[in-house]
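Suppose you are handed only these lines of text.
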Amino acid sequence: MSDKNPFGISITPGKLRAKPKDTSPKTVAKTDAAAEKHGFTDRSPKKRRGRKPSPRTGQVHAKVMPDVAREIGDEARARGVQQGVLIEEAWALYKAENDL
Amino acid sequence: MPTIVVASPKGGAGKSTTAVLLGTELAHENVPVTLLDCDPNRSLTLWADQADVPRNITVLSDITEADIVRTIKAHDADGQVVIVDLEGVASRLVSRAISQADLVLTPMRATTLDATIGARAIQLIAEEEEALDRRIPHAVVFTMTKAIVSKQHKGIEISLRQQGVDVIDPPLMERAAFSGLFAFGGDLHSMPPMGNMDSARDNARAFAMQVYKRLAGEG
Ligand SMILES: Nc1ncnc2c1ncn2[C@@H]1O[C@H](COP(=O)(O)OP(=O)(O)OP(=O)(O)O)[C@@H](O)[C@H]1O
Ligand SMILES: [Mg+2]
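From them, the structure of the protein bound to adenosine-5'-triphosphate can be written out as follows.
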């Protein structure tokens, strides 16, 4: 501490004592509950691992001629989309055509 | 190690500035300091990257909700200080850090808006004290104050004190040197002069001494 210090307190690091604190999961849970009550919420960035779940949860049961299956497969692969996307597009065209 | 958590859900209240000033002043007085940067915006890490990190200081970055409790515990040792800088939001990370604190500092500008939002930190501390059945010492430090204390400042300070809130005197005044720390890195002793350096150093040191007194039980 320099002589210039107008406040005249000197720092003794030895006086800085570690005090034990509870770090158990139970304490963390209590802390989180207190936080929740005051609107201090989980804001940690959510890691999204892997592929997001597809919104395509409907299913059709279509047997088609082998060459049609091959062409649909090739087209979907080439465009990098699911085969279902092609069926959706075909259905949209069909509806437009037939005023459905 | 006493752990000092700098917390306010108010953005731009002066948390990171308070953390760096306190850390660098204590380190300058030969206290080993670990700064935990828990803000995804990485203010302390940016400061550390500007220049050589001063002697006695270690900065750990990217501390999250999942590892805050463990990280504080890992740096638990007598004669050292851990200072935690948090993002200006109401997060669970803030509350977990507070659960491990020996002292919580809530920086606030002396405006009604800052005081109102800053008060949420004080309410959270009270709730945690009850939930954990442990006293968690805390104090408010006014930041960016002017030489002439405004009516608003006086009013807020009086009302806090009346409610039993510990207010640290001196406040951290608005000073070019304090914001300059983030432009130049280092500390008030190494950076190129900005504004009145002597006053800035005296202010920062007097503030750090007040914090030290509270930690050492001399307050
Ligand atoms: N005492 C001061 N004198 C001059 N400028 C200051 C002072 N305190 C803070 N500032 C400036 O005000 C701005 C906000 O300060 P700071 O980054 O410390 O706030 P914060 O509470 O950490 O913000 P956040 O919530 O975004 O983390 C910064 O540009 C900083 O340089
Ligand atoms: Mg900050």
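What can we learn from it? The helical segments of chain B are 15-28, 43-50, 68-74, 92-99, 112-132, 151-162, 176-184, 197-216. The domain at 3-215 of chain B is CATH 3.40.50.300 (Rossmann fold).
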